[in-house]
Specification:
It contains eight helices and 25 strands. The protein is α+β, with helices and mostly antiparallel strands. The chain has two domains: 167 residues, OB fold (Dihydrolipoamide Acetyltransferase, E2P), CATH 2.40.50; 205 residues, Chloramphenicol Acetyltransferase. Strands 15, 18, 21, 22, 23, 24 and 25 form a seven-stranded mixed beta sheet that branches. Strand 4 and strand 5 form a beta hairpin. Helix 5 packs across helix 6 and helix 5 crosses helix 8. The longest helix has 16 residues.
Length: 422
């Protein structure tokens, strides 16, 4: 019996995705657990596993097709010797022109997600996409851009001559000229400017931040914090690390601030909360989202139960999360959720800034650079390393006095950092 393979929902908010690449071709034998294809979402490129067995009788969605709705048929499996059923046309929105896809997922190897399948349902097929001058998968376009290659000089070996990853990686084509493009065609604008189409990630960021700013009543509280004691403790702890091996570590200031925020959230738990129309949700676990910059936007991998982890554990886990975030290899549960966020721009020398809340969280901490400056200690003038932090707060959840109390607790932990190792 023929079985449809459907476009999977790879996250709770996913409504459509890009079918980046097929790893099986028509006529191949498919076993349960085999990787069929790669799907690009707004956050990552993910592998789709087969949950049924059979022969890949027909591919309904070609590589590079964007805007494929969740639960739309993408292929059909048949039994050995079974004919592929007649395929009826199915209405679908016009195929968009090729565009630069989510830069959060440059890597080809990614998490595996089981694809649901439905039996005994009508087999449908999308209309053919409009022809373009260059037929290339989104992944091939991205690699070509990184290597500075002109796709028009590369011969495709994929279906119907489509340029795929292996073609670009093996190419020794002419470099891009000033007028050529390896990704989405830029639209010339007046005055010699160019217009670059939005990636899926940029669209999602724009939508979520607009919703957050327009629906959440933000207010901001800032405080200056001395860092010298924390930096001294960091140096002492790093000096105890083995030079190499699985037990080696190198704590960053940000690792220690993540732990300090977790300790402060346990002391003032009303900030570790979310707003709903019916109730306030107070979270038992302290799951801290860390804003990570990637080529086309940002992603927020999560350090789960940060209050219960040592500085060494937080440091090792954070480095792994950041590395995989920039390679597009995070699983959905590793960046979806979280109860509190930290955005650190201290490495850019930023004096101070305010961050936009990441809903449904109630607060986000913006961390600026530590700077040497004069401070008054008692009746004496001294020099200290001081950073400004700003807490953005959802006023529906947290009142001003509670926000100030949380910042006071955070400052106390940072300026007396032995709390972090006790």
């Amino acid at each position: 019996m023929a079985i449809e393979v459907l476009m999977p929902a790879l996250s709770p908010t996913m409504t459509e995705g890009t079918l980046a690449r097929w790893l099986k071709k028509e006529g191949d034998t498919v076993s349960s657990g085999d990787v069929l294809a790669e799907i690009e979402t707004d956050k990552a490129t993910m592998e789709v596993e087969a949950v049924d067995e059979g022969i890949l009788g027909k591919i309904l969605i070609s590589e590079g097709t964007q805007g494929v709705p969740v639960n739309a048929p993408i292929a059909i499996l048949v039994e050995e010797g079974e004919a592929v059923p007649e395929i009826a046309a199915v209405p679908q929105k016009d195929a968009p022109p090729p565009s630069k896809t989510d830069a959060a997922a440059p890597a080809e190897t990614a998490p595996k997600v089981a694809t649901p399948s439905v039996q005994k349902s009508p087999v449908t097929s999308p209309a053919a996409s409009a022809a373009h001058k260059v037929f290339a998968s989104p992944l091939a376009k991205r690699i070509a851009k990184e290597k500075g290659l002109d796709l028009t000089q590369i011969k495709g070996t994929g279906p119907n001559g489509r340029i795929v990853r292996r073609d670009v990686e093996n190419a020794s084509a002419k470099p891009l000229s000033a007028s050529s493009s390896a990704t989405a065609p830029a639209i010339a604008a007046a005055g010699g400017s160019t217009s670059v189409p939005h990636s899926t990630m940029r669209k999602v960021i724009a939508r979520r931040l607009s919703e957050a700013k327009s629906t959440i009543p933000h207010f901001y509280v800032s405080v200056d914090i001395e860092l010298d004691a924390l930096m001294a403790l960091r140096a002492q702890l790093n000096a105890t690390s083995p030079e190499e091996g699985p037990d080696s570590f190198k704590l960053s200031v940000n690792d220690m601030l993540v732990k300090a925020a977790a300790v402060a959230l346990k002391r003032i738990p009303t900030v570790n909360a979310s707003f709903t129309e019916d109730a306030m949700i107070l979270h038992d676990d302290v799951d801290i989202s860390i804003a990570v910059s990637i080529p086309d936007g940002l992603i927020t991998p999560i350090v789960r139960q940060a209050d219960k982890k040592s500085l060494k554990q937080i440091s090792q886990e954070t480095k792994d999360l950041v590395k995989r975030a920039r390679a597009g290899k995070l699983k959905p549960e590793e960046f979806q959720g979280g109860t509190f966020s930290i955005s650190n721009m201290g490495m850019y020398g930023v004096k101070d800034f305010s961050a936009i809340i990441n809903p449904p969280q109630a607060a986000i901490l913006a961390i600026a650079a530590g700077r040497k400056q004069p401070v008054v200690k008692g009746s004496e003038l001294a020099i200290a390393t001081v950073m400004t932090v700003t807490l953005s707060v959802d006023h529906r959840v947290v009142d001003g006095s509670v926000a100030a109390e949380w910042l006071s607790a955070f400052r106390s932990v940072v300026e007396s950092p032995l709390t972090l190792v006790i």
